[in-house]
Design brief:
The complex is a heterodimer of chains A (302) and B (260).
Chain A (H helix, E strand, L loop, with lengths): L14 H37 L2 E6 L6 H21 L3 E6 L2 H12 L12 E7 L11 H11 L3 E4 L2 H43 L1 H9 L4 H39 L13 H8 L1 H21 L4
Antiparallel strand pairs in A: 1-3, 1-4, 2-3
Chain B lengths: L23 E9 L5 E10 L4 E6 L5 H8 L7 E6 L2 E2 L8 H5 L2 E4 L11 H11 L4 H14 L15 H13 L5 E5 L7 H16 L3 E5 L3 H6 L4 E5 L2 E5 L2 H6 L12
Parallel strand pairs in B: 3-8, 3-9, 6-7, 7-8
Antiparallel strand pairs in B: 1-2, 1-4, 4-5, 9-10
The chains are: A alpha+beta (302), B alpha/beta (260).
Chain lengths: 302, 260
Amino acid sequence: MRLMRADLPVAEDGTGHFLTVMVAVMVFLAALAMAGTFAVHNVVERWNRDVSGTLTIQVMPTPGPIDESNARTEANVARVLEILRVEPGVLRAEALGEDRLKALMEPWLGSPDMIADLPLPRLIDVTINPKDGPDGGLDLAGLARRLSEMVPGVTVDDHRLWLAKLVDLAQGLASLAWSVLALVTAATSVAVIQVTRSSLATHRPVIEVLHLIGAHDDYIARQFAGRAMVLGLMGGSVGLMLAVPALAGVGYLARDIEGGFVPDISLSVPQWVLLLALPVFSGGVAMLTTRLTVLRALSRML
Amino acid sequence: MGRRREDGSIIHRQRSRREDAPAAEFVAVGLRYGNGPEIFTDIDFDLPAGSFHFLTGASGAGKSSLLSLLYLALRPTRGAIRLFGRDVTAVPRHQLPAVRRRIGVVFQDFRLIDHLSALDNVALPLRVAGITEEEVHRHVPELLTWVGLRDHMDARPETLSGGQKQRVAIARAVISRPDLLLADEPTGNVDDRIAMRLLHLFIELNKLGTTVLIATHSEALIQRFPYPRLHLERGSLYRIPSARDTALVSSPSRGGGRPP
């Protein structure tokens, strides 16, 4: 038995090319938007992983002559470290060495020699136990209060504020990408509806004959829908085949950018699977839309 | 594979269901196209199950419209049409296919599907009814052979002559052994010899229980086969009994012709 019966010459009515090209373009755009969303999602994941479980504590330099100030600041740092080391949930607390501090300052203040006399704030890197959640079971607000009571001018930074803004940005980009997907799906559906309507008009005499010899609407709709599914799959595959090199190109360009803000656009396996499923999705959308359009139109015939 | 019809074989299916109700019955049927004048006014008639009638009338008298009403391509403006005892003007749309599958139609313009071969055209009624391909390939070539198209089974309609197309159309109309066969000028494009052969096909079907209504201009046909006539004139339908009926039956009003 033939896989797909075609009493209707739907394959030969010239609407097929338009639909294939349309779906190809749409799937191309959808693939780019989806890959963009996934990449942003991956970046945010990584940022989250990198900064959660760490705190940065800043100890301000005390006023006074430079030598005296340095000594007192060192003492403050030592007291803060003492407190931190007995704090449950803190895995490790370590003051950044002077060399490292100066290296951090260099882009803003110039060579280390020139700032030898400047009182610099000290930074303490704290790693908290990730087993107890992102905050390591610490009462961050309490810790900050106790530290600043003991040593004036101590601030605790858990990177939340900085991260929150980036996450907002990432989420904004993601919703933009989803809107693109929704628009693309809607535009494809509208195109499919138009193509189906013109195809229905072309084949109206044959449809009438099929009706008169006792065909159910479903029998007729199946033939249109089957054809649309094939076209949707074909167009989708072409669009995806165009999108993959484009994505690889973007990944290649991004690879050379330093700074960690643009990570390599490597997608995880499930994400690739979702991208590769796009042609199936476009085939499904084309099929369902066509079926509904045909059934609706047929229900107005006798 | 396709589904089998509930009643099994398409050739040997039960015929009991049609015994009582007339195959077709018109009650005060009126028809007008748009806002035009009424083509039919108060048409009343019935086709008793198993009867054979000719439908006559001048060109434009409405023979094709009357047939369209019978094969459910048109709805009457008023009145009721009952097919096999069911009021089809009140049947919900999704049940129409079941009624239509009991009707075979030979259209005046054949309405063959151009991109399908003769075999596939004739197979259509079986396929839309879900008959298996196995049965399709058993019955369709047999019938095409019978109508003299054995060598044209794979031909597309455009390559066939008018008469050949007509025979494909007739084969399509009778392949599913309909309970009601409607034919619009079915012998218009064929020579006398083939016309007679086709008429005999209709008569054979009628003997097996199919109700037959043939619209025709051909006086030769009407003379040769003395079945009763339904005659359309000025929007009304008149029943003209066959010569043999008038001889045998005292009341010529109702009751259709039986095979002579």
